[in-house]
Amino acid sequence: MIIKTGRFGQLTVGDDERIRIPQGILGFPELQNYFLVDPADDTLILWLQSIDRPEVAFPLLEPKIFRPDYAVRLSSMELRELQLESINQSAVFSVLTIPDDVTQMTANLKAPLVINLKRQVAKQVVLQENEYGIKHTMFKELRTHLMTINAQRGARDDAGAGISAPVALKNIPPSLTVKGLEL
Fold first, then answer.
1. 3-state DSSP helix/strand/coil percent for the chain, to nearest 5?
2. Ordered domains of the chain (ranges, CATH)
3. Is there a smaller number of Cβ atoms within 10 Å at the N or the C end of the chain?
4. pTM exceeding the 0.85 threshold for the entire prediction
């Protein structure tokens, strides 16, 4: 299927790329069909693009990138809805708010989007833990994390051996640009 998006122009989406969110995203319950877009820019941000309303797209980021201790616990009902045996079989994303001043970027840690990538079904869950907020300012944490990875990469390159970054982080560019701001 061909989708004309507001942000990315015309994109071709296969049936195997469609993600169903039966209950929608908070505030958008009527929008239930999406796909992930990797804009192939130098950011770690993916976009959850609506098929139902092509002008709607949500920026997403894996919270473990900037908050390594982040943990999601799902109820047995949520696991059933997502057709999962455990949270380890899913991808977890925070929905971002990116204002003009990207240093004020926030992540919703309280209500992550959990995606069963095998079944292409997702749910935005509201966590019961009180330690997470809906507007977690995360720019400094993300920047610190990326600087650490870059330092490890430099040490590995200098030594010619061994520091192994987690698979999801191996392709982090030397600098991250978000809306033109270099970290």
1. 25, 30, 45
2. 2-182 (2.30.290.10)
3. N
4. no
